[in-house]
Amino acid sequence: MRTEALLLLGLLSLGAGCAAEAPAVVKTASNPRQPGWMVKVPQAGDALYFSGAREGASSLEEGTDAATQVARTHAAEFIGVDVSAEHHDVMSTDLASDRVQDTVKSRTTALIRGAQVVDVYYEKFSRTAGATTIDRFDVWVLIKLSKAELEAERARQDREQKQSALSALGRLREAQQQERAGNVLAALIRYRDVVSQTRPLPQQIELGDPQFRTSGQLRQAAEDAAAKVQAKARRAVLVAPDWAAGSIAQALSSKGFSAITGPEGSEQQALLQARSQGMPWVIVVKGTTVPGGRVFSQVAATASLDVRALESQSGAVVASAVKQAKGVGRTPEAAQQAAANEAGLSAGTDLAAALVARENSGL
């Protein structure tokens, strides 16, 4: 009797030990065997298949949606278009490129979102945490699209990309004509248009042009020309008092502008000089300095500047800045120069920013 009791006690202890060693995570699957398309998608004459996966999803619905989106992305890569919902801000010079990408996305997204979900396989992992069960899902999805529709979309994109490249080539010819005519700002705008038009395009689009055989060569030529013409577009004749010219020229130079000094007080002569040398701008500076009182061992002064930028061809004022600044120095002359330098740097910086903004806006 005692032996039987000991045997029963041993069996109960063994059962308790087995219960304590139950697996921490329980795995269940939607099918006993993983489908073969997880390794290699099917091949069919009239359809194309794409698969996607999502690991560690908090629900089966979330995992299925995410895996389906991955499969759609693979379909988009086949066509050659990024159809993600993410948006990237662009500079003003990239607007044409952004429009091209948005147009292609809008036409292609509808096609890919219409893909048929053929199969879904998932594995659920359940873990007990106290009185709570936590589930995580690994999900795989297979989608199918019409091969004929996808091929037609790819062919349509090829045609539109070729058309965009040829349009950019025509815009480059316009830029070259404007540059030869001395209209550097108009040429710069057109060169930048070509860069933005060709940026989203494949580089190997054949153009059938003896000078630019591919879209990649066209883009490189436009970038090089834009850099060269921008240097020409940022030149000016500066008409200013000697005591103000240095600081104005320094501020302009820091923003990529170069200025040559013209005859003081003669706007007409400066305009004629700018036109003859192909310079787009004439910058006219008028100002006064007023001595001030003493500041400890130094003296003070105030400088006032009225700075205008004229378009050399028409003579119209396109930007202006009015600045006033104070300065101190050991002598009245030094104080006046310090004030003039402060006002000139501020006015020149504002003027350069206004000209760059005008340049970027396409005039």
Task: Record the strand order, biggest sheet.
Answer: 6-5-7-8-9
Poorly predicted residue ranges: 16-20, 82-104
> How widely separated are the two ends?
108 Å
Task: Tell me, briefly, the overall form.
Answer: elongated
- Secondary structure class reads alpha+beta
The percentage of residues in β strands lies in: 25-35%
Q: Could you report the average pLDDT, rounded to the nearest whole number?
A: 84
Taking the sheet with the most strands, its summary is: 5 strands, mixed
Written account of the structure:
With 363 residues, this protein is of the alpha+beta class. Helix content is 49%, strand content 26%. It is built from nine helices and nine strands. The protein has helices at 2-20, 60-79, 95-113, 147-180, 184-198, 215-233, 242-254, 267-276, 332-360; strands at residues 25-29, 47-57, 116-129, 132-146, 235-239, 258-261, 281-295, 298-311, 317-329. The strands form two sheets. A five-stranded mixed β-sheet has the order 6-5-7-8-9, sandwiched between helices. A four-stranded antiparallel β-sheet has the order 1-3-4-2. The protein is elongated, with a radius of gyration of 36 Å. The chain starts with a helix and ends with a helix. The relative contact order is 0.08.
